[in-house]
Design a protein that fits this description.
Number of helices: 20
Number of strands: 2
GO cellular component, one term: cilium
InterPro entries: Ankyrin-MYND_dom_contain_2, Ankyrin_rpt, Ankyrin_rpt-contain_sf, Znf_MYND
Distance between the termini: 113 Å
Shape: flat
Protein name: Ankyrin repeat and MYND domain containing 2a
Organism: Takifugu rubripes (Japanese pufferfish)
Structural class: mainly alpha
Keywords: ANK repeat, Cell projection, Cilium, Metal-binding, Repeat, Zinc, Zinc-finger
Oligomer: single chain
Strand content: under 5%
Number of domains: 2
Length: about 425
């Protein structure tokens, strides 16, 4: 075991090189015989911890390739490389640590996990990555025959496309349908049924394992519901999944709210097979009292529970697929945003019914806001004028009082004195 602060000259140089991000020099130093990749500085930090905290992605890759221990927790406060990755806010480094086998449930000296540390400093994207991580190896288990099975539960060719869906952090059902449509291997009802069944098995395993993972179980159940709905559409209709997408996007005439999507997500949550799970009860308490069409929506509540995202107010989300960071607005109403023209075109069939109404609503709000600003400006001008008048009046009174005092204090002339 390495001793804290017991560093060779080359190891000290390595720590300095990490700060600069010089990968070539670091690679040269790691080739030296007197350099230990898991050496500890005086605080118990390894080179990997330093690289993760400083956000040096290439350096992290290099250190992991040379055998850096991703789960070392000799840090004086029990921090791990994954915790430092979360603190850095670099999602790619967070992925690297997880792919290297970083444990997510380890706590530091104040009892916080890596996800909790990232949330504490506002790095919610890293929280989302940690909470949604599911290794490919865990899925590949189902792509191999087990026991007396002649065929695996999941055909190996489906493991990749399914893993992409599992790792997604966007739980909007429209986005999931898009991911299914992107891969021809999934556009078969039989293939989707097999994927759905595997999701159900993973959900069951998450609940029955020694350390229950309610969040992952709920996510797997939700994915299984979406895949099941896709399979049923492929069986019953010839238009592939276009009908399902339109159903999920169709908004009501009054305000464009996607009623079917809301009902579908609520139904998915209601069908969760383990009624005693705390997460399910929390979701039901949050969603059940809310009338359909009001906030919070079922999607927002589910997303926050599963991914840990809390940035819904600060970020723009695509009205069609729910992707974060959408910037393209409808040129007419300017009230809805999209990822790109494809998403805008996909949503137009229902948005066009309320676009003019939303435009009028926006113009009315802008007019009222302008009127309010004008009133505030007038009030401020009035107050400024009143203050100026009061100041001027005070000056006049001061001058008047000063003149009176001067006259009172006027020296007595010699004539007056004689009289």
């Amino acid at each position: 075991m390495s001793v804290k602060g017991d560093l060779s000259s080359s190891e000290k140089q390595l720590f300095n090189v990490i700060s600069t991000g010089n990968v070539q020099e670091a690679s040269r130093l790691l080739g030296c015989k007197d350099v230990r990749v898991n050496c500890l500085d005086e605080y118990g930090m390894t080179p990997l911890m330093h690289a993760a905290y400083k956000g040096k992605t290439d350096m992290c890759k290099l250190l992991l390739q040379h055998g850096a221990d991703v789960n070392c927790n000799e840090h004086e406060h029990g921090y791990t490389a994954l915790m430092f990755a979360g603190l850095s806010g670099k999602t790619e480094i967070t992925w690297l640590m997880l792919d290297a086998g970083a444990e997510t449930d380890v706590v530091n000296s104040v009892g916080r996990t890596a996800a909790q540390m990232a949330a504490f400093v506002g790095q919610h994207d890293c929280v989302t990555v940690i909470n949604n991580y599911f290794s490919r190896a865990r899925l590949d288990y189902y792509s191999k025959p087990q026991g007396l099975e002649k065929e695996p539960k999941l055909p190996p060719k489906l493991a990749g496309p399914l893993h992409k869906i599992i790792m997604g952090t966007n739980l909007n059902p429209v986005k999931m349908v898009m991911l299914v449509e992107e891969n021809p291997l999934l556009l078969e009802a039989e293939a989707l049924d097999k994927c759905r069944r595997v999701m159900e098995l993973i959900c069951e395993k998450c609940i029955k394992q020694q350390e229950m993972n309610e969040v992952l179980a709920m996510k797997m159940h939700y994915i299984s519901c979406v895949l099941g709905k896709c399979a049923s559409f492929l069986k019953d209709r010839d238009d592939k999944l276009d009908g399902l997408t339109k159903s999920l996007l169709k908004g009501r005439d009054s305000d464009g709210f996607p009623v079917y999507q809301e009902k579908f997500i609520r139904e998915c949550i209601r069908k969760f097979p383990y009624c005693d799970v705390t997460l399910l009860q929390q979701l039901v308490r949050s969603i059940a009292p809310v009338e359909i069409g009001n906030d919070p929506t079922a999607l927002s509540v589910l997303t926050q529970a599963i991914t840990g995202q809390v940035g819904f107010i600060d970020a723009e989300f695509c009205t069609s697929c729910g992707e974060k960071g959408a910037q393209k607005r409808c040129s007419a109403c300017k009230m809805v945003v999209y990822c790109d023209k494809a998403c805008q075109k996909l949503h137009w069939f229902t948005h066009k019914k309320v676009c003019k109404k939303l435009q009028e609503q926006r113009e009315k709000q802008e007019a009222e806001a302008a009127k309010l600003r004008m009133q505030q400006s007038n009030e401020e001008d009035k107050e400024a004028n009143e203050a100026a008048d009061a100041t001027q009046k005070l000056k006049l009174e001061t001058n008047s009082n000063g003149n009176s005092a001067a006259e009172t204090a006027k020296p007595v002339s010699s004539e007056d004195a004689d009289n």
